[in-house]
């Protein structure tokens, strides 16, 4: 049984990565563009452009979520996303109470640890990281155009 489960691991990690990246990017899109119900606490609106820390967090969510979804620069994007969620938890949520269940910081804590896991597992199967690595290993990197 363990052998079968281990052989499916890269595919399950890829599915996990896609779902997490999509959810994170959707959160950023909601905050930046007012789609999908808008930013939390705005009744369908957006966060103010340049507002600290909400607007910057939303940009990180949209960009890193999209990169993780595609499996492009997965480990770096996941590290940035994890750090931003750690900041969100300790700077925003923990001021209200110690435990995530009390301070509303459960999503921030979960996203922080989920992205931290992806830093170490990598993108799994079906990622642009793998496609680029295979192309580079085969010597198929595109050459720069002559000036």
Oligomeric state as shown: single chain
N- and C-termini, Cα separation: 57 Å
Secondary-structure element pattern, one letter each? HHHHHH
Which segments are poorly predicted (pLDDT under 50) over 5 or more consecutive residues? none
Helix content: 55-70%
Number of helices: 6
Description:
The protein has 147 residues and is mostly helical. The protein is built from 6 helices and no strands. It has helices at residues 2-33, 54-70, 74-93, 100-103, 106-121, 128-137. The model has no long low-confidence stretch (mean pLDDT 91).
Keywords, separated by commas or semicolons:
single chain, 147 residues, mainly alpha, globular
Task: Map the helices and strands.
Layout: H1 2-33, H2 54-70, H3 74-93, H4 100-103, H5 106-121, H6 128-137
How would you summarize this macromolecular structure in one to three sentences?
By secondary structure, the chain is mostly helical.
